[in-house]
Amino acid sequence: MNLSMNVKPVPTLDDEVNEIRLATAEIVNRDILPNEGRLWGWITDSANAPNETAKQAKELRLEVQNNVKKANLWAPHLPREFGGMGLSFMQHAYMNEVLSYSPGAASLFGVVAPNSGNQKILVKYGTPEQHEKWLKPLTDGTMQSGFSMTEPHNPGSDPRSLTTKAVLDGDEWVINGHKWFTSNGHAADFYIVMCRTSDPNDPGGDNEKMTQIIVPKDTPGVNVVRGVPVWGRASSHCEIKYENVRVPKENQLGRTGTGHAAAQDRLGAGRVYHCMNSIGSMWRAFDLMIHRLTTREVHGGEKLEDKQFMQGFIAESYIDIQSARLMTIHCAEQMESGADPRTDISAIKIFVPEAYHRVVDRAIQVWGAAGVSGDLPLAGMYQGARTLRLADGPDEVHKILIAKNILRRYHAGESWDFGN
Ligand SMILES: Cc1cc2nc3c(=O)[nH]c(=O)nc-3n(C[C@H](O)[C@H](O)[C@H](O)COP(=O)(O)OP(=O)(O)OC[C@H]3O[C@@H](n4cnc5c(N)ncnc54)[C@H](O)[C@@H]3O)c2cc1C
User: Fold this and answer.
1) Dist. CA 156 → ligand 1 center (Å)
2) Residues of the chain with pLDDT under 70
3) Which of 141, 204, 235, 385 would bridge 356 by S-S if both were Cys, CB 3.0 to 4.6 A apart?
């Protein structure tokens, strides 16, 4: 089975975005989809993956990455001066839904979380020296990074509760704290650590008491306790203790107290990109589901597509994908136009992962046992969709935000304008 993604020019988009989408789809269809088993071979059978298989997979990934670079599709999230495509926000969003058709393909286009989020923060808050020392190697691929914010003993959904502390001693920050779920923690050469630099009762706003600080992994006192197992498997989402870790003052990102703002910057646009990624994955799950419905014969030779239960799956999944996509594009347009996008960001953060979850769930059901096997990308997508509902701010917190924003407007004597 070698289904390809059907991407045609979108009449309402300009030529440049359409060309980017078509060129991206060409690489996905030609270089990635037919090779998925070999590109990510060890994922299906990691315990038994021989070194040779892993080596060949790495070589193949490099080959695809070179093709991506030749097609000028490398690092869509970065400005040109930092080695990226220099895309606008909307262009990047529209490209994401295409490159996410194949799970893991984003990394072949130079976008790998959490490096990509860290790169964006370094671009915006970093000094020229920090760009040279940390951003450039991250973009060249000679360094890896992690973002260390969530703590086991405090609610990650309320970043103001974080207690990892950084105190200035001369011209050094001394950091003490306990983090977990620092993704890419094993491979990272440095972490961007969210630290409390003012006490809760100190003067100043609640959102001005954190600072993000770059901490090289080999600094004494950085203790990577373990990769926390996730979905029953070993992972690189690490638990880390920072014990009297000393780094130079110039490792802080931006002014002291801008950590919260930087985290918001990372998450705002990031949520639109994540949602467009989810839509690309739903698109794939949908195509896989239809393929199975149109080829599998059941009870007495009828195809699955002839069964009304199954036709319901098609219609419901179509509705889920279209609503998720249009809602995300509306939110991205709000952001692009300078309108206040907070209500829509929270709305897509809730709706899209839920829709993604439903679409993949139906595709798994239609594929039967194969649906949960490692032979198809559906099981991984299912876990990813479920995880998205709690990562990046859990759904309940976003529901509270939506209600507050809406009620504020009504209490001010206005009502909601759904046309804007
Ligand atoms: C695979 C994965 C990768 C991750 N990668 C990173 C990373 O790289 N770096 C990093 O710093 N973090 C990372 N995280 C952590 C993630 O951002 C947090 O798990 C998330 O922010 C939620 O925080 P928490 O786990 O402490 O849950 P809590 O804040 O304790 O919330 C638990 C639950 O309580 C409920 N809840 C919370 N607040 C409210 C409220 N006000 N009203 C009603 N209900 C509420 C929600 O249902 C929520 O799911 C990752 C998590 C996962 C699963």
Assistant:
1) 5
2) 2, 41-50
3) 385
270 Cβ partners below 8 Å, 6+ apart? 117, 120, 392
Atom of ligand 1 nearest to the CA of 149: 11
- The radius of gyration of the chain from alpha carbons, rounded to an integer in Å, stands at 22
Boundaries of CATH 1.10.540 in the chain? 15-111
| CATH number of the domain located at residue range(s) 15-111 in this protein | 1.10.540
Q: Is the CB of 343 under 6 A from ligand 1?
A: no
pLDDT tens-digit profile of 324-349?
999 999 999 999 899 999 999 999 99
Delimit the CATH 1.20.140.10 region(s) of the chain: 261-411
Distance separating alpha carbons of residues 164 and 185, to the nearest angstrom: 17
pTM for this one? 0.93
Give the H/E segment covering residue 324: helix 308-337
Would you say the CB of residue 229 lies under 6 angstroms from ligand 1? no
> 407 CA to middle of ligand 1, Å?
25
Q: How far is the CA of 158 from the centre of ligand 1 (A)?
A: 9
Dihedral-angle region of residue 170 (phi above 0 means left; psi in -120 to 50 means alpha; beta otherwise): left
Contact 84, 36 (CB under 8 A): no
Domain span(s) for CATH 2.40.110.10 in the chain = 145-253
Instruction: Report the b/e string of 171-199 with b at 16+ CB within 10 A.
Output: ebbbbbbbbbbbbbbbebebbbbbbbbbe
Distance 68 CA to ligand 1 centre (A): 34
Summarised one tens digit per residue, pLDDT across range 33-61 is 999 989 976 554 555 556 788 888 989 99
Pick the CATH number of 145-253 from 3.40.50.300, 3.10.450.350, 3.40.190.150, 2.40.110.10: 2.40.110.10
Residue nearest to atom 19 of ligand 1 (CA): 391
C-beta of 157 in contact with ligand 1 (< 6 A): yes
Quickly name the fold that domain 261-411 has: Butyryl-CoA Dehydrogenase, subunit A; domain 3 (1.20.140)
Beta strand ranges found along 152-199 (DSSP E):
165-169, 172-182, 190-196
Query: pLDDT tens for residues 128-171?
Result: 999 999 999 999 889 999 999 999 999 998 888 999 999 999 99
Q: Is 191 in the pocket of ligand 1 (CB under 6 A)?
A: no
